[in-house]
Amino acid sequence: MALSTKHMITYLRAMYLYNISIMAESDVGEAVRMYLNKELAYDENGTSLSLLEMLDSPHEGVTYCIQLCTENREEIASFQTRRFAAIRAQLETAYAGKVLFFDSIMKYLNQ
Predict the structure, then answer these.
(1) What domains can you pick out in the chain, each with its CATH number?
(2) Is residue 57 helix, strand or coil?
(3) Tens digits of per-residue pLDDT, 14-29?
(4) Tens digit of pLDDT for each residue in 68-85?
(5) Beta strands in the chain (DSSP E)
(6) Helix, strand, or coil here: 102?
(7) Contacts of 73 (CB under 8 A, 6+ apart)
(8) Element (H or E) spanning 74, and its range?
(9) pTM (2 decimals)?
(10) CB 27 within 8 A of CB 98
C-alpha cells in the first residue's frame, strides 16, 4: 500500500550542518591538522564528523573545517560543550594568537 503525500511529509526531518572553520597561521597549520585528526578520530556517540581543508582560502595560512551533520540542534549543542570547547581551549592555549575560529549552523533546504 502506497503512502499518500500527506503521510510521507510527516516522516521528513530537518537536517542541520554545523561548521567550524579554523584558520591557522602557516607555521602551525600542520600541528593543528595533526591535533584535529587525533581528537576527531574517535567519538563514543557515533557522531558523524568530517575534517576538511579549505582549498584556495581567501585567508593567509591554512583553513580547516570540522563539520557535523545531524537531525537536531540538541546534538550540535552537545558537541559544542562535550567536544568543541576542549578542542578550542587546547588550540588557543597551544597556539595563542595563531588560530581563529568561526562557527555556524545551517539548515538543509533541498531534502
Answers:
(1) 12-107 (3.30.70.100)
(2) coil
(3) 899 999 999 999 999 9
(4) 999 999 999 999 999 999
(5) 16-24, 49-53, 62-70, 99-107
(6) strand
(7) 16, 105
(8) helix 73-79
(9) 0.82
(10) yes
